[in-house]
Amino acid sequence: MKKINFSSEAIIYDDVSELSKEDQEIIKEANIAKGKSYAPYSQFNVGAAILLENGVIIHGSNQESAAYPSGMCAERVAVWKAGSEYPNVKILKLAIVASSKTTVVDKPVGPCGACRQTLLDYEVNQKAPFEVIFMGEVGKIIKTESLVSLLPFSFDSSYL
Ligand code: THU
Description:
Blueprint: E1 10-13, H1 21-34, E2 44-52, E3 57-61, H2 74-85, E4 91-100, H3 113-126, E5 131-135, E6 141-144
Parallel strand pairs: 4-5
Antiparallel strand pairs: 1-6, 2-3, 2-4, 5-6
Helix pairs in contact: 2-3
The protein binds tetrahydrodeoxyuridine.
């Protein structure tokens, strides 16, 4: 028997102005994406923006359905759009922003478990980590250097 420690690193910022210009730009794009969110049922609007290695920026936003489980998170909309429009182009960064029509989102909104698993495939396939930046409407901003740091002991294609 052996006990191991594992750790993930994240940088916590107090204000967007502390991030690089490139990071601020991708956050701005995520906010534009959030404006295209369709979330009449949860009233919770999420925007995601992906910066690709070729300079293209992809927007995704959550899209809901009256048949609730049929909706989709902003992150998966964005990464599937990137994967289908630009296969084999590396993802450099993903920014996620969220706000609610019923409350003030004052905590950084990280990708849900299903999104982390979905995003991981793209990171593993491109053999290079990509940064994930996430935030709420107010409060701290979190940046991680890779997707795998958000999903330790994850399942990937190496098992298949
Ligand atoms: N949602 C996202 O788009 N991304 C997340 O990381 C968390 C949740 C969406 C799904 C649903 O439309 C709404 O937020 C409330 O869960």
